[in-house]
Specification:
By secondary structure, this protein is of the alpha/beta class. It has helices at 28-33, 35-41, 76-88, 107-113, 117-120, 172-187, 216-219, 225-236, 252-259, 292-308, 325-328, 336-348, 378-389, 394-404, 441-446, 451-464, 466-469, and strands at 9-12, 45-48, 52-53, 65-69, 92-97, 101-103, 125-126, 146-149, 154-157, 164-166, 192-195, 242-246, 268-270, 279-280, 283-287, 314-315, 353-357, 472-475, 483-489, 493-500, 518-522, 537-543. A hairpin with a 3-residue loop joins strand 19 and strand 20 (493-500). The structure holds alpha-D-glucopyranose and calcium ion (CA).
Length: 544
C-alpha cells in the first residue's frame, strides 16, 4: 500500500479560515488556533493555498516572493510554529507551489521589464507588432493571453491574469530556481506539496493561432511536462512526500503517467471533468442542469481507468475555485443535510485520496449574493463585464455568477452563530451568508446526526476498511441515471455504495447479490432496504 491511500487531506484557504488580529482577513495564527479542531475532524494533512508575498490580484496565486510570508497572513515565525504545532498533532502541512507563472511584481519579472536578457528568458516574450498579439490564445480569466510591453516592443504570455506572467520552463535556470523553492520549504519541515496548474508548464516550440479553440490544446499536458516533473521530483528528493498536481483539461492517459509510482512523478492528480457536467456546451459561463448520466460515466472512466493502470486520483467536489457542492448538485434548502452527506459519501468511498475543502464538512452553501459589489474575485469581475458586453442583462449575469463565481466557496469559515460567524471581530473581507446562524462548527459539534459528524465517520471508515483505502472498484449499471453505484473489494470484504443523486423516491430492489449484506452506513436515521429516498445513500457490506 502506498503511504497516502488511507489518508484524508483538508484544504485551507487562509484568507477565509480564521482571523486573529481583527483585520477581517484570516491569518496563519488563525490556522494554529484551529489545529485542535482539525485533529478532532481526523484529517492527516492540511494543504494551505498560497500565503506568500503577493499583490493579491488573484488572492495569492500571483506570487511575488516564494520564500517569504505575506504580512497580511503573518510572519515566517508563525509559519514555522504552524508546521511544528501541526506536526505535534500528527498533521502534515502541504504547501501550494504556483510554478506555471509568477506575479509581474516578482523581482525576476521586474528585471525582465528593465530589459535584462537573463531574466527576460525566465518568461515567454515574443515579437509581434503592437496591436497584434503573437497568437489568438485566450486567457483563462478572459481576453487575449498576451500583453504588450512598449519599452521592450515585445509581448509576454499570461494564461491567467495580466499580472501573472508564465514562466519559461525550457530555461534550465528557471527549473533550478523552482527546485530551490521546494528545497527551502522542505527544510522547514513541510510534508507535501500541491502544484498549481502544473500540466500547463511545458509550452510548444512554435506558437501558432488556434482556429479550433482557445489555445489550450497547444500547451495542456505539453511536450516536456513529464520530463520536467521527473526532474523536479528527483532533484529535490520529494518522491516520498505527498504530492498532488492540479491538472487543467487533462486526459486519463496523462494522469496515469503523472501518478503511476513507477514513473516517479506525483502521488496523485486533480482533474475537473466531473465538475463540468453542468457547463452548457462545455462553457463555464452558460448554465445547464447537471447531466447525471455524464457524471456517472466520467467517474466510472476515471476510477476504473486509473485503477487498471496503477494511477491514483485525488477525489473531491470542492475547492476555492468551485461553487459549494451542496448548492450545485445537492439541495441547499429542503434536503440540505441529506444531500450534503450523500455527496460526501459518493467521493469518500471512491478509490483515491479524498480532499475536504474548509466548510464542506459542515455543509456550507453558496452565499447567493444579489449584488455585483459583493463579489471580489478577478475572474468573476472580468466575466461580469464580458457577459454584459455579450448582451446579457445585469440580472442574467448576476444569476450566472450566483451559480459559478469562485467567491461562492471563498466566504469565511462559519465557526459559530455570532455576527461574524466567529471568523473575525471586524467586517470580514468577503460577506458571510445569514445561514451561519445554524450552519456552523459549534452547533454541528453538538448534534449527533450533523454533517460534521458524518464527515468524521467517513474519515474513520477509510482508516478501518481496506476495501475503501486499497480495494478495487467496479461501477454497476443501474436503471436510472439518478442512481450511482459501485463495488469496492479487498481480501477482507466487499462493499456496495449506492447514491441517489436527486430528490423524489426511486424504486430500488437492491442487487441480488447484496440481499443479505449488512448496511454499514446510510444518511437517514431509519435504515431501509426498499425504495431510495431523496438523496439517500447506503453502503452495503459483506465480510469475507
Ligand atoms: C489554479 C488555482 C486558481 C488560480 C489559478 C492560477 O487553478 O486553483 O485559484 O487562479 O490556478 O494560478
Ligand atoms: Ca488577520
Amino acid at each position: 500500500m502506498n503511504h497516502f491511500q488511507d489518508k484524508v487531506i483538508y484544504q485551507i484557504y487562509p484568507k477565509s479560515f480564521m482571523d486573529t488580529n481583527g483585520d477581517g482577513i484570516g491569518d496563519l495564527r488563525g490556522v494554529i488556533q484551529k489545529l485542535d479542531y482539525l485533529k478532532y475532524l481526523g484529517v492527516d494533512y492540511i494543504w494551505l493555498t498560497p500565503f506568500f508575498v503577493s499583490p493579491q490580484n488573484d488572492n495569492g496565486y500571483d506570487v511575488a516572493d516564494y520564500l517569504a510570508v505575506d504580512p497580511l497572513f503573518g510572519t515566517m515565525e508563525d509559519c514555522e510554529e504552524l508546521i511544528d504545532q501541526a506536526d505535534k498533532r500528527g498533521i502534515g502541512v502541504m504547501l501550494d507551489m504556483v510554478f506555471n507563472h509568477t506575479s509581474t511584481s516578482h523581482q525576476w519579472f521586474q528585471k525582465a521589464l528593465s530589459g535584462d536578457p537573463q531574466y527576460m528568458d525566465y518568461y515567454i516574450f515574443r515579437d509581434s507588432p503592437q496591436g497584434q498579439p503573437p497568437t489568438n490564445w485566450e486567457s483563462k480569466f478572459g481576453g487575449n493571453a498576451w500583453e504588450y510591453v512598449p519599452s521592450l516592443k515585445k509581448w509576454y504570455l499570461h494564461l491567467f491574469d495580466v499580472t501573472q506572467a508564465d514562466l519559461n520552463w525550457e530555461n534550465p535556470n528557471v527549473r533550478e530556481e523552482l527546485k530551490n523553492v521546494i528545497r527551502f520549504w522542505k527544510e522547514k519541515g513541510v510534508k507535501g506539496f500541491r502544484f498549481d496548474v502544473v500540466n500547463l508548464i511545458s509550452k510548444p516550440e512554435v506558437f501558432e493561432d488556434d482556429h479550433q479553440g482557445d489555445g489550450r490544446r497547444f500547451y495542456t499536458d505539453g511536450p516536456h511536462v513529464h520530463e520536467y516533473l521527473k526532474e523536479l521530483v528527483r532533484d529535490t528528493g520529494i518522491d516520498q512526500m505527498v504530492t498532488v498536481g492540479e491538472m487543467s483539461s487533462t486526459t486519463l492517459d496523462n494522469c496515469i503517467r503523472y501518478s503511476n509510482p513507477e514513473e516517479k512523478e506525483l502521488s496523485m492528480c486533480f482533474n475537473f471533468h466531473h465538475l463540468k457536467v453542468d457547463y452548457k456546451d462545455g462553457k463555464k459561463w452558460e448554465l445547464m442542469e447537471p447531466d447525471l448520466a455524464a457524471l456517472k460515466k466520467i467517474f466510472a472512466t476515471w476510477q476504473e481507468g486509473m485503477a487498471e493502470n496503477n494511477g491514483w486520483n485525488a477525489v473531491f467536489w470542492c475547492n476555492h475555485d468551485q461553487p459549494r457542492i451542496v448548492s450545485r448538485l445537492g439541495d441547499d434548502k429542503t434536503y440540505w443535510k441529506e444531500s450534503a452527506k450523500m455527496l460526501a459519501a459518493a467521493v469518500h468511498m471512491m478509490r483515491g485520496t479524498p480532499y475536504i475543502y474548509q466548510g464542506e464538512e459542515i455543509g456550507m452553501t453558496n452565499p447567493h449574493y444579489d449584488r455585483i459589489s459583493l463579489y471580489k474575485d478577478v475572474e468573476s469581475l472580468n466575466y461580469y463585464e464580458i457577459m454584459l458586453e455579450q448582451g446579457k442583462t445585469k440580472q442574467q449575469a448576476l444569476e450566472i455568477l450566483e451559480a459559478r463565481s469562485r467567491d461562492n466557496s471563498r466566504t469565511p469559515m462559519q465557526w459559530d452563530g455570532s455576527d461574524f460567524a466567529g471568523f473575525t471581530q471586524a467586517e470580514p473581507w468577503l460577506s458571510i451568508p445569514d445561514n451561519h446562524r445554524y450552519i456552523n462548527v459549534e452547533s454541528e459539534k453538538e448534534q449527533g446526526d450533523s454533517i460534521l459528524q458524518f464527515y468524521r465517520k467517513l474519515i474513520q471508515l477509510r482508516k478501518e476498511h481496506t476495501a475503501i483505502s486499497q480495494g478495487t472498484i467496479e461501477f454497476v449499471e443501474t436503471d436510472s441515471d439518478e442512481i450511482m453505484a459501485y463495488f469496492r473489494e479487498s481480501k477482507e470484504e466487499k462493499l456496495l455504495v449506492v447514491c441517489h443523486m436527486k430528490d423524489g423516491c426511486l424504486p430500488w430492489e437492491g442487487l441480488e447479490e447484496t440481499k443479505d449484506w449488512d448496511i454499514l452506513l446510510t444518511n437517514y436515521s431509519q435504515e431501509s432496504r426498499g425504495n431510495l429516498r431523496p438523496y439517500e445513500m447506503r453502503i452495503y457490506r459483506k465480510k469475507y
